[in-house]
Every structure is written in C-alpha cells, then in structure tokens.
Amino acid sequence: MTESFDAIVIGTGQAGPALAVRLAKAGRRVAIVERKRFGGTCVNNGCIPTKTLIASARAAHVARVAERYGLRIDGDVRVDMARVKARKDAIVAESTANVEAWLRGTANVTVVLGHARFVEPHAVAVDGRVLAAPQIFINTGGRPAAPRIEGLDRVAYLTSTGILELDRLPEHLIVVGGSYIGLEFAQMYRRFGSQVTVVEMAPRLVAREDDDVSAALRQILEGEGIAIRVSAECLAVEPRGDAVAVHARCSEGPGAIVGSHLLIAAGRVPNTHDLGLEVAGVETDAKGYIVVDDSLATRVPGLYALGDVNGRGAFPHTAFNDFEIVAANALDGDPRRVSDRIPVYALFTDPPLARAGMTKREARLSGRPTLVGRRTMARVGRARERGETLGFMEVLVDAETKRIVGAALLGIEADEAIHGIIDIMNAGAPYTAIQRAVHIHPTVSELIPTLLGELAPLGPARDGAGAAAA
Ligand SMILES: Cc1cc2nc3c(=O)[nH]c(=O)nc-3n(C[C@H](O)[C@H](O)[C@H](O)COP(=O)(O)OP(=O)(O)OC[C@H]3O[C@@H](n4cnc5c(N)ncnc54)[C@H](O)[C@@H]3O)c2cc1C
Question: What residue owns the CA closest to ligand 1's atom 2?
Fold first, then answer.
C-alpha cells in the first residue's frame, strides 16, 4: 500500500533535515529517508571527523615545537591513535545522534530508514514500502571517486571514509591527490608521526587555486617534512609484499614510492547512479550531477535536488544555502536564487586557506580592471606574536565598481578573518566599508583595512609566479 505525504526528503545531509523540519513546522506531512547515518558526509565522514582529527594533530604539532615558545617537554610526544580515534568517534556519535533526535522529535516528520529509489516520478520505494508525495527533495550527496589507476584493483587502499577508521599509525602514508581532502589528511598524518608522500597528477597542488597559493601551500607542507611529487602523469600502483608501490613518472626520475598505506583522494562523485532517476525522468549531466535550475528545481515538476548532488556547490554551507533557497521559494514567496551565492570555502591545513569569490586567474579572464591588495603574514603582528608567520592575504577589488570580487587568505585565523570580507561582498558595499572600519588590535582581521589601503593594479600573469600586484 502506498503511504502518502506532502513531501519526501531523500538523505539527511546538510540540506534535508533542515528542510524537513521547516516544511513540517509549516504543517506539511514529511517523510525523510536515510540509508546510512544521520547527518550524512559532513557529520560522519567529512568535516566533523576530519576537523576533530586535525585538532589532535595540531596539539601534537604544538607540543613538538613547544621549545620555540620557551617551554620544555621532557620526553617524546607520542600519538595514541586509538585514543585519537575514540575522541573523534565520540564527537561524531554525538552529532549524528543530535540530527536523529531532532528529526524524530519533530511533529509531522516521519523518519524512514533504508535506500530510496524512484518507482514513479512522485513515489519512491524504501525497503518494501512505497512512499508518494507531490514534492520530493533529493539530498543524496556524494562519495569518494574511484579513479582509473593502473593496478588499483590489485592493492588495498583507503578512501577519505576508510582512513577515518584507522586506529594505528601508518608508517608511510602515500596520498594520491594533492587537493583539498588529500592535503588535510597529509598534514594530519605527518603531524601524527607518519612519513607522508603526496602524489599529484597536475603540475601543482590544489590546481584550482592561483599558482602562488599552490606554491605557498607546497612550501608549508614540505616545511613539515611531507614529500611532494607533482606531474605524476603515469600513475600506477602495485603490491609489494604488505606494502604498496606507487609509480608516478612515465620515464626517468625517482623510482617507485613504497608506502605502508595508500589513500586515494581523487575527487568525489554524486550519489545518483542508484536512485532510479531514469524512472522519474530526472536528468543528470555527464558527471552524474542532477540538472537543476536557479531555484534548484529539476525539469520534473515537484522534484528538486539540493547539496553536492546538484553540482552547484560541494560544501555543507552550500547545501544548507540550497535548503534556504528552496524553503524561501516554497514557503516565503521569496525568489532566492543559487546564482546570488558567492563561492566561499576553506582548506583546513594549518595555516588554513580561506577563499571567497574569484581567483586572480578568474579576475584576469573576466577582463575587468582589477586592483589587488596583498600582505604577507610575516607583516601581521598577531602572526608574529604567535610565531606562525607562513602565508599571505590577498584581496581583489573591481577598479570601477569598488566592490571586492575575490580574496585568498592563507594564514593563521584565515578561516575566521575572511568573514568580514564575505559579509561586505554579500552586502554589495564598496571595499571602503572595510577599509574605513576600525578593527580590534592585535588580530589578523585588523590588517585587512590596511591592505585595502594599499591597492595596486593586478598585473598580467607571470609564468609560474601567479603574478600579483606590481
Ligand atoms: C573527508 C572530507 C572532509 C570534508 N571537510 C569539509 C570541510 O571541512 N568543510 C567543508 O565545507 N566541506 C567539507 N567536506 C564536504 C562536505 O562534507 C560535503 O560537501 C557535504 O557533506 C555535502 O552535504 P550534502 O547535504 O550534499 O550530502 P551528504 O552529507 O553527503 O548527505 C547525503 C545523505 O544521503 C544519504 N543517501 C544517499 N543516497 C540515498 C538513498 N538513495 N536513500 C536514502 N538515503 C540516501 C546518504 O547516506 C547521506 O546520509 C568534506 C568532505 C569530505 C569527504
């Protein structure tokens, strides 16, 4: 027998629960379906566990460099991975339980456990039950990609999910993928005490960022003893006894890298292959992302896609903003749009990279006259006091509109300091609104007005240098 609802939400990631509760509070009868763990990727195998582990890794790092601050620790700093993991597991368990309790405790919300698959455009089957609703919201997220690497089917390897279950330290971790997820794990495990090698196919790390950001990140990571191999065009892996060998180069160059563990961090793919979307008539693009319009509607009336699965963002904050957009359109008569969103994100290395809007490369491609303000962290008092002066802050301004169009802050507290810039960008105010503001001393943020007072024209790209201001 078909069970009817006003709305069905598939997935309890960063958009689904908030949307289910909002709709329920508006009087709609809502079913929300989850096949694994409440809270999805961010809560269970993404942001929360990794940032918890990074906190342990940072504590180990600070203890190791304590002497620089005039402290003496007698004996070695050793990491007990079982306890590190237990701490992570406890924080994750609390978060996932909170999401479940929130949903189960909300009137009008029915929680259904199992895998949802479309059987009609407005009905899904879940474990022998059929649920139907005029509106269905797909928030099924993504999973680690399994790239085509020669020999990968013959070796044991970890993904960003599997590595979270390690309770013993790898002797030598090889990370294939020098982008956001790979670099966080690389630094984390180096700080835990593993030997770490990062192997990246592109000529530089985090190739989406400007060259100078990639170069500075490389310097930071190499400074901690992480080996980095870029331009690994001919990647192949093979078993070597209990170890794994990674071949990175087509011809000459150093031989195979042999490690005890292999992490494949080579991107993510959307969970759309097993949803029965073809039955519903929902279109996906070449990479499997659900095609949506600016209000996140698919071409099938009543069907929407939110979060990573729609390819319009790859972060919890974009997924949550998708919820806000859908709720505003459905319940508030407010025509909010995805295209109003300014791209923002962070890479949580230490120091972190925080980004908003355009890179310099994108600013140059836009053809707009652009100004750039830049300051190295070595010239930020707070960073010097903390003894952590690596990185730089850079802000891009449209020379005609005076609006901030991009920012890359790589340095301590960058992930917090960027929010003043993000808010001004969203307000549509000119950069002078920050430049004339009085900020608190001594902070990282206090130097942002200063660098905005030193704007210079953005020059053409210089090969390999990412060309900044004159
Ligand atoms: C290692 C790692 C670290 C990360 N760290 C950060 C970070 O620090 N900051 C940041 O901004 N982003 C980070 N991210 C990205 C972030 O986790 C994701 O962007 C975010 O979780 C996406 O949320 P979502 O709502 O789209 O989907 P998800 O959180 O993936 O949720 C989807 C849910 O749907 C369920 N589901 C799927 N298919 C079905 C089905 N057919 N039936 C029923 N249920 C289904 C899944 O089980 C899952 O619970 C990280 C990602 C990873 C992998």
Answer: 46
Angstrom distance (rounded) from CA 438 to CA 314? 34
- For residue 158, list its beta bridge partners: 263
Model pLDDT for residues 47-65, shown as the tens digit of each residue: 999 999 999 999 999 999 9
Q: How far is the C-alpha of 437 from the C-alpha of 390, rounded, in Å?
A: 26
Report pTM. 0.96
User: How high is the pLDDT of residue 4?
Assistant: 98
Q: Please tell me the distance between residue 271's alpha carbon and the centre of ligand 1 in angstroms.
A: 10
Distance 131 CA to ligand 1 centre (A): 23
Going by alpha carbons, the residue nearest to atom 30 of ligand 1 is 141
- Say what percent of the chain tops pLDDT 70: 97
Rounded Cα distance, 209 and 327, in Å: 33
* Cβ–Cβ under 8 Å, residues 375 and 451: yes
Band of pLDDT at residue 466, cut at 50, 70 and 90: very low
Decide if 172 is catalytic: no
Residue 436, classified by CB atoms within 10 Å of its CB into exposed (0-12), middle (13-18) or buried (19+), is exposed
Gap from CA of 77 to ligand 1 centroid (Å)? 34
Q: What pLDDT score was predicted for residue 234? A: 86
